[in-house]
Amino acid sequence: MTADKPDSPTNAAEQAPALSPLLEKVKARMGALVHEYQTFRGDDRIHLDRANLVAAAQVLRDDPELAFDLLLDVTAIDYLGQPDDFTTRLEVWDRNQAAMRRLPTRRHELVLPPPGPHPRFAVVYHLISTTHAHRLRLKCRVPADDPTIASLTSVWPGANWLERETYDLYGINFVGHPDQRRIYLYDEFVGHPLRKDYQKRHEQPIEPYAGPGAKEPRRPQ
Amino acid sequence: MPDLEQKNLAALNSRNGARRGAAFDDLHTEPMRIQFGPSHPATHGTVKIVLDLEGEQVIDADVQVGFLHRGFEKECETGFFYQNIPYTDRLNYSSPILNNVGYCLAVEKLFDIKTPPRCDYIRVIGGELSRMADHLLAVGASAMELAAFTPMLYLLEGRELIYDLTDALCGARVTTNFVRIGGISADLPEGFKDFAVERLDKVMKLVADADKLLTENPIFRERMEGTGRLSAAELIAWGVTGPILRAGGVPYDVRRVTPYLVYNEIDFDVPVGEHSDNFDRYLVRMEELRQSRRMILQCLEKIPAGPVNTEDRRVRWPGKRQVFSRMEELIDQFKLVLEGGTPPAGEVYHAVEAANGELGFYIVSDGTGKAWKCRCRSPSFSNMSTLKNMLIGGQLADVVPTFGMMNMIGGECDR
Description:
The complex is a heterodimer. Chain A is of the alpha/beta class. In chain A, about 20% of the residues lie in helices and about 20% in strands. Chain A has helices spanning about 10-15, 20-30, 55-60, 90-100, 160-170; strands at about 35-40, 45-50, 70-80, 120-130, 135-140, 150, 175. In chain B, the strands form 3 sheets. Chain B has a 3-stranded antiparallel sheet with strand order 1-2-3. A 3-stranded antiparallel sheet of chain B has the order 6-7-8. Chain B is globular, with a radius of gyration of 24 Å. Chain B has helices at about 5-15, 70-75, 85-90, 95-110, 115-145, 150-170, 190-215, 220-225, 230-235, 245, 255, 280-300, 320-325, 325-340, 380-385, 385-390, 400-405, 410-415, and strands spanning about 30-35, 50-55, 55-65, 180, 185, 345-355, 355-365, 370-375.
């Protein structure tokens, strides 16, 4: 696989440090808030500290040159055991061996990789501007021992369900979310299934039917 | 009437004054909670809406999804890239080829593969056929839920005719599994052009008939006009895309805004509405049916000859004859089966315009044959998150047309 160009900042710095036109605009407006700019296959993305997220989101939405008015997607990535977000490449063959290894079916068989030096999770936001038609991706790293990040429902109300889904499947807590409940899974479900340490074949008992009226549907107050 | 109730009613009237007639002021009502679904004839797809009613008026709604959650993203992390294509059929099962195309374009962007032009044209043809099938079902089912049974029969007959075309393309009607990474499963069959022109003419006749039955129908208009309204600014803030956003007057269409495949080489209009109500959503869908046909006819005229699959050895499956007679192809076959074709490490997002809005796939690769993460940004999910705002303030009977025009597809919303 010599033809592959790894998506690494060192590599990018060696070749061409020039940012894309959109990232130049973003940098001019919020230079201090962002600590990394990257472009891969034409996708622009910026890396933020989670403390700066809401301030950055407001600039991105309100600045007339940027005008990111539509929040497309919120999701998370679990980088369990990875040294970073794949910018450092391990040997491809080792990775393939790991990918092909038969997954253990029971929890006690599971050997977890050691935690990487970087925060385990990344929360990812995809934005588009309906006026300028440009797209941007925001990434914030979130550590495993404190998986919290500010909710963006105050900036884009559409973040409501997307953040609920991320909470449901990854266990990231969105501080300031008006109605953070599980959205796909039932309330009794234990764990967060898209985390890498949740095995695909893990089964949970089916909750018995409690009869009509036994449990009122939970509603936001 | 006690003072308290007077006060409650006054508050309600001021909140929803526009839609609440004066005749209801003297009527004694009590707040009531009812469960709409999960099994209800009008919830095509399993969804539950807990409605709080004051008389006939919706004062609060809680939309609950997830009944069809199958773990699409978890499943995609455990299979090679090419093994996930059948799962994408089951996302929006009314327009499967559009999902196939969206997923494969995202993977090709990660691999940095350019497909041959003939392949791009065939993908557009298949995708637009799928979009027509989806719109026919959406409009037909909505009409049926408003007790207009005949147009539903016309439109579903049109969908059957389109399924015949899909059948000719890939041998399947619903779960197509048509697109491959770097190509498609088969070239156009012989005589497809004439077959398609004939079938599309028949479909358009049926659509015109349904149009006559619905568009000027006073009952249909009464129930569709002015219901489920939401302003364009609110739609954008809530992340709504697709026909619903265009019916609000925002000409946001991924095919036009960030063109992919050959959409910048063919002529089409993006219909927009102005009232942002259910009737405009219906009109936008009907116009998109005509535009899709226009696109297919243009593609059939313009389609160039040539191969339909890429020659990139990382994803191309060699023919069986070559595998059994040549060393190189045998090695390729082994590598694809065992390693699945390895892209560079990195992450990409690619969006296509699906029948309900922007369908995006966000793929994170660690450099192996399996995705580290494969996220599907489904239009139905974001659209459904604002259904509550469309329902509050309306009548109970407005739930059905609003939900019908939302065209929630359970497989795509719940993944």
